[in-house]
Design brief:
Elements lengths: L12 E2 L24 E2 L11 E9 L2 E9 L3 E3 L20 E6 L2 E2 L6 E7 L2 H14 L9 E12 L13 E10 L3 E7 L9 E2 L11 E2 L1 E5 L3 E3 L3 E3 L3 E3 L4 H9 L8 E8 L7 E2 L70 E2 L7 E5 L2 E6 L6 E7 L2 E7 L3 E2 L7 H4 L7 E6 L2 E6 L3 E3 L4 E3 L4 E13 L2 E15 L4 E6 L4 H6 L5 H9 L2 E2 L6 H5 L2 E11 L4 E11 L5 E11 L7 E3 L3 E8 L2 E14 L3 E15 L12 E14 L4 E11 L12 H4 L8 E5 L5 E5 L3 E3 L4 E3 L14 E6 L2 E6 L4 E3 L2 E3 L26 E6 L2 E6 L3 E3 L4 E3 L10 H8 L4 E2 L2 E2 L19 E3 L6 E3 L41 E8 L2 E8 L2 E2 L5 E5 L7 E5 L2 E6 L4 E6 L7 E4 L6 E7 L4 E6 L4 E6 L6 E4 L6 E7 L4 E6 ...
């Protein structure tokens, strides 16, 4: 075969060779014997093996079994066998489960043959079975995870040997392979052409009658339960009935190969009886790869000539098109290729190909990717899978890639190594990846992506149009948090069971057990993950393709996700629960496969608890480097625990959280010692690597780019410390754990250097500057002026603005609004790229809700404040740093507004107050028992949505997320609400009031900061705006002057504290928390208590971090929490109610579900008494503190 080194590199798809095979030969049997790890059955006439415990259960017929037994008499059973006289001389069916490749009275005594058996998980064996199933059952997708191989070699029939007769020399050899995944089971029977020399055996009790029973071949389910106390004969399938049918075993076969028989023998969901392969189709049969009895060898393959470009698209000079099944080129190679065997292909010039896709409407399908040896690939075709081969493209020596030519393809944190056939990239110490992409060991990882697709929920199609996906993975324990935003409500509920969307990132960055590798070490940041889910019982199909598109400059993994298909309807408001599960991944060069079945439970008020399942098929294709030593294992097991799923219909966010661990297929169920590094129970910082030692010892080492003792690490600013080496025309930009050199505007990066003169392979660009104007960055009524390294936008004549936004000069804004509003709007400055903006340092007046000047005006830049009159003029002598409130010169009228019908006087005594939508409800307490019949609405505001609220001085304080304000209102009838803070808020959530100091504190999860001010809004200041990721709840202990707050930081949730002045910040709780939603202070026990929506626990701890205890570990979805007497009360988003829980016993005691079914938010406790005809809150437990109103005489 002549070399084709001048050909362009293309993907070559190979099918199997069509050849005439007379029969299966002994060397075609699956490898067996002690050197392949087989156990040997004891010699004898009626022996049964020790129980073969299956690492995963298999389905035989429709029943699940976890053990198999191999018997002398040519059978495999799912139970320990009875004495042979109860079945060996009887016909089918048997009364116990049987897989019978040759049921007869066999005897291996006195060394007459041997019987071998083993459990098998190697990809070579499993792939061979999968390929045979695919050929014989077209359209079936089967990726076995386990197989059991039993081989009867040269075994003899039982004979009664007399003194005058010698034993027969006739012996038989045959083999049975039972392979299965989480859904289906198949059996292969192999009979070599010289393997059957006797076809039956004589019954032991036939006396002098010359009777021979033909061997029974087939399958029996055994007896099954009938009615209540009865049993009846189960289904069975028989292959043989007489001597000729036994001879057919090696003469015919049902796969097109004489001696090779294949049967589908079980299914998880529905199975009536065994299904044989259909030999009538005359399926083209491949030659079988021989088993080398002494040592593995590479089989000889016929040489094949290929056309110059057999798959080229005439409209595309670079990418081949996707071939349909009928367009595959003629078969050329034998079928069963073990990993490491390479066909003798022609050498091709070297070209690195990225994954190639062909567009479907709104979707992409994988065509192929260059690999370095033949490998099984899964290809989607008409919403199902079929197999194809992707062959080697080998390269001639003179065109070999070397580090000298291509080192820049390696990561800046990696290095290049030359090998005899080419080069490979590897990561430096302290980094992990595939060499082309390297990340710092131990540092948390982020993923950003876009989701598109069309999914039918029931009969309703729903489109996902470029919605955001974000994931955050904590490398220290392998926990992956995934959030998809702006998901429409019908599909948001329905996609809750699809945890594999986020499960991919768990596999990529899983916690690694010794000698095992997570996905990123193998694939790096360029791969395609294809998933197909088939739901039962509705048979809906969903396809998900996730394409990794390298790392961003910040080391974020960029993803492109396409979803298409249909999913079952899930009742709105339902919850989805998944138990921990395991998946087995099989690793081949350039492709990784997995197959599993997942159960999930849907809990809803309408239908209660219902359990469903779906079958999951996955394959991951990536660019592999075969030139260097191969380090990835053939198979690994991914364990997934602590599975949390939620859809938030208000925010339209779909969330998954899963803890992932990658390790061996066989884990020690009772290990003596588990190192905290492998258990994920260490206390290393989230930006540190846990390094295991002896036993339970370990040490923490900050990740590359971070500094500290390992338990507390902070980012190293390479730019400020001069550790970066950015060249000319560039600036250093610090990143978490790293930095990057950013070229100045107008310059581009070439081989790590910012240059104005950029060269390609053969064209020299004469321009020394990048012309930004070509991208049309300016407004349509502006023109662009390019300059060296920059550009400028200018509005055209007749328009005004900054060039990014231009308005006609004649279109002045009409005079509208109050004097204050006009004054404010006139000072907003020119139009900028983001809309109106004030001039830098300018004062902009603040107007109240009615458009009048606020009496107190403050300068946003200087911080000085002064009082103004009704016309906005400064009152002399009032200018001061933020000072006392101003009193208007003209007092307002004393006429009180009419009583409002939506204010209800509070009940006397102690009540729980809770926020729900646009109202605050009151739930009276009788002791600690909720008096649900007396529940009422305390305050209703028809425009405002309460999120968190508190009560003090007969006033209710609350945060309004929709209005981005903090407000208060008096409980007196006719009182109007008042906005205290109206600017600078994005997502004000938790709110706390310090009655002793007349201060309030809040967290804002938008800019991630904690602020404080006086109760009237004065003295506002930022306490903390660093090291916060998602602050949620906040409380204050007035007695000690201590603040406590929770942070939902996905990679490191924590509870922190400081003084009310913002000093002495420290972490109180770091370990063992997930989503600390609610926080309260138990005054009697002097403990901080929190409810966690991730761990589902309510826990308490002393302020010094001691005495931690779990009150209850079975919460649903707590939102807010308050302590009163010996009880905790919390609002629950799963039940949409108030739940009561005894502090001492930890038991639930009561629940209240309001008639209005929607989420409940903040909760507090207040005691009201009658004072001068008015109900006054004498004691309010403000979620965190107590305050007693003093009597003024």
């Amino acid at each position: 075969m002549k070399a084709r080194g001048s050909l362009p590199a293309v993907c070559v798809f190979l099918c199997w060779a069509v050849c005439s095979v007379s029969a299966v030969r002994r060397e075609h049997l699956f490898p067996y014997g002690t050197r392949h790890g087989d156990s040997t059955l004891q010699e004898g006439d009626d022996e049964t093996s020790e129980v073969l415990e299956l690492r995963r259960p298999l389905y035989f017929y429709e029943t699940q079994f976890s053990a198999l037994y191999v018997a002398t008499n040519g059978i495999i059973s799912t139970q320990d066998l009875p004495m042979e006289k109860q079945y060996v001389d009887d016909g089918f069916p048997t009364d116990f489960p049987v897989i019978a490749p040759f049921l007869a009275d066999i005897d291996t005594s006195r060394g007459r043959g041997a019987i071998y058996y083993r459990m098998e998980e190697s990809p070579g064996v499993l792939t061979r079975v999968a390929q045979e199933v695919q050929r014989s059952f077209p359209g079936t997708y089967f990726t076995p995870t386990h197989a059991v191989i039993a081989t009867w070699e040269n075994v003899a029939a039982y004979e009664e040997v007399s003194r005058n007769s010698a034993p027969s020399s006739r012996v038989n050899t045959f083999q049975a392979v039972v392979a299965y995944d989480d859904t289906d089971s198949y059996a292969l029977f192999l009979y070599p052409e010289d393997g059957l020399q006797f076809f039956g055996t004589r019954p032991k009790e036939s006396y002098n009658v010359q009777l021979e029973l033909p061997a029974r071949v087939g399958f029996c389910r055994g007896e099954v339960s009938f009615l209540v106390f009865s049993r009846t004969e189960g289904p069975y399938y028989s292959v043989t009935s007489n001597e000729q049918t036994v001879k057919n075993l090696y003469q015919v076969g049902n796969t097109g190969v004489p001696g090779l028989w294949l049967f589908r023998i079980g299914n998880r969901f529905s199975f009536q009886n065994v299904v044989p392969a259909a030999a009538a189709r005359a399926v083209p049969t491949a030659g079988l790869v021989a088993q080398d009895r002494e040592a593995t060898t590479t089989p000889d393959y016929a040489e094949v000539e290929y056309p110059d470009d057999p798959f080229s698209d005439p409209t595309n000079d670079y990418y081949p098109t996707v071939l349909t099944d009928s367009e595959f080129p003629p078969p050329a190679f034998p079928e069963y290729l073990e990993p490491g065997h390479s066909p003798n292909l022609a050498s091709f010039s070297q070209t690195l190909l990225q994954p190639i896709f062909k567009d479907e409407p709104g979707f992409h399908f994988l065509c192929g990717i260059t690999v370095l040896e033949p490998v099984l690939i899964l290809k989607p075709s008409a919403c199902s899978f079929s197999y194809f081969l992707l062959a080697v493209i080998q390269y001639s020596t003179e065109n070999k890639e070397t580090c000298a030519r291509f080192q820049q393809t390696c990561s800046q944190n990696g290095y290049c190594t030359d090998y005899s056939s080419g080069f490979c990239c590897h990561c430096h110490t302290g980094y992990y990846g595939n060499g082309r992409h390297c990340l710092p060991e131990g540092a948390p990882q982020r993923v950003n992506g876009k989701v598109n697709g069309l999914v039918s929920v029931g009969a309703t199609p729903v489109e996902l149009d470029n919605v955001d996906l974000h994931a955050y993975i904590v490398m220290g324990d392998g926990r992956a948090y995934t959030a998809i935003s702006q998901v429409p409500e019908p599909i948001g509920w329905a996609l809750m069971p699809m945890a594999p969307i986020g499960g991919l990132y768990g596999w990529l960055f899983a916690l690694e057990l010794p000698h095992h590798q997570n996905g990123f070490r193998i694939t790096g940041a360029e791969f395609t993950h294809y998933t197909e889910a088939i739901f039962y019982p509705g048979n809906q199909r969903l396809t998900i393709v996730q394409t990794a598109q390298s790392l961003s400059p910040e080391n974020y993994l960029s993803m492109n996700i396409h979803i298409r298909g249909s999913v079952p309807f899930v009742v709105p408001g339902a919850t989805v629960q998944m138990e921990p599960y395991k998946e087995i991944y099989q690793y081949y060069p350039s492709v990784i496969t997995s197959s599993s079945v997942r159960d999930y439970t849907v809990v809803s008020l309408e239908k209660g608890s219902e359990t469903y399942s779906y079958q999951l098929r996955q394959n991951i294709t990536y660019r592999d480097c075969r030139h260097g030593p191969r380090t990835s294992p053939e198979s690994q097991q991914l364990s997934m625990e602590r599975i949390f799923i939620m859809y938030d219909k208000e925010e339209r966010i779909l969330r998954y959280a899963i803890t992932n661990k990658i390790g061996p297929l066989r884990e020690d169920p009772h290990p003596e010692v588990v190192n905290p590094c492998y258990a994920g129970t260490h206390d290393c910082d989230t930006t540190a690597q846990c390094l295991p030692g002896e036993g339970e010892q370990f040490r923490c080492q900050c990740a590359t780019g971070y500094r500290g003792d390992g338990r507390s690490c902070h980012d190293v600013d390479e730019c400020a410390e001069g550790l970066a080496s950015c060249g000319s025309h560039s600036s250093c930009v610090n990143l978490p754990g790293s930095h990057r050199c950013q070229c100045q505007s107008g310059f581009g990066l070439s081989h790590g250097t910012c240059v104005g003169e950029i060269k390609t392979l053969s064209v020299l660009l004469v321009n020394s500057d990048i012309d930004e104007c070509t991208s049309k960055p300016c407004h349509a009524q502006a023109f662009c002026l390019n300059s060296l390294g920059s550009f400028e936008c200018r509005c055209r004549s007749g328009f005004r603005g900054d060039g990014f936004n231009c308005l006609p000069q004649s279109c002045e804004s009409p005079s509208s609004g109050t004097r204050c509003e006009q004054h404010r709007d006139s000072l907003q400055g020119g139009l900028g790229p983001r809309g109106p903006r004030p001039a830098i340092g300018a004062f902009v007046p603040q107007c109240d809700e009615e458009g009048q000047y606020r009496p107190l005006q403050c300068h946003g830049s200087t911080g000085y404040c002064w009082c103004v009159d009704s016309g906005g003029q400064e009152r002399e002598g009032t200018r001061t740093p933020p000072g006392p409130p101003c009193v208007p010169t003209v007092p307002p009228p004393t006429v009180r507004p009419l009583p409002r019908p939506d204010v209800t006087p509070p009940p006397s005594g102690t009540s729980l107050l809770y926020a729900q939508g646009q109202q605050i409800g009151a739930l009276p307490l009788n002791g600690t028992r909720m008096e649900k019949a007396k529940a009422s609405v305390l305050l209703a505001l028809h425009v405002i949505t309460f999120h968190h609220f508190l009560m003090l001085y007969r006033k209710v304080y609350w945060t309004d997320l929709s209005g981005r304000t903090i407000n208060r209102a008096s409980l007196e009838s006719g009182a109007e609400p008042e906005t205290i803070i109206s600017t600078g808020l994005t997502s004000p959530e938790g709110l706390a009031v310090d009655a002793r100091r007349s201060m309030m504190f809040w967290v804002d999860s938008g800019p991630d900061k904690i602020e404080s001010c006086r109760l009237d809004g004065r003295d506002r200041k930022v306490l903390f705006d660093t090291d916060l990721v998602n602050p949620r709840a906040i409380i204050v202990d007035s007695a000690s002057g201590t603040l406590y707050w929770t942070d939902w930081n996905r990679d490191a949730p924590k509870i922190e504290s400081s003084t009310v002045e913002g000093h002495g910040r420290r972490v109180v709780v770091r370990d063992g928390i997930g989503l600390p939603n609610a926080l309260t202070f138990d005054p009697s026990a002097r403990q901080i208590c929190w409810a966690d929506a991730g761990t589902k626990r309510l826990e308490c701890i002393a302020p010094d971090g001691t005495g931690r205890r779990v009150i209850n570990s079975n919460l649903n979805y707590p939102f807010s929490l308050v302590s009163y007497a010996n009880h905790f009360y919390y609002t629950d988003w799963r039940r949409d109610g108030v739940i009561a829980l005894n502090r001492d016993s930890g038991q639930f005691t009561d629940e209240y579900l309001p008639d209005q079914r929607s989420h409940l938010y903040g909760i507090t406790v207040c005691t009201f008494t009658e004072v001068n005809g008015q109900k006054t809150p004498v004691t309010c437990f403000l979620t965190h503190c107590s305050y007693r109103k003093r009597t003024v005489k």
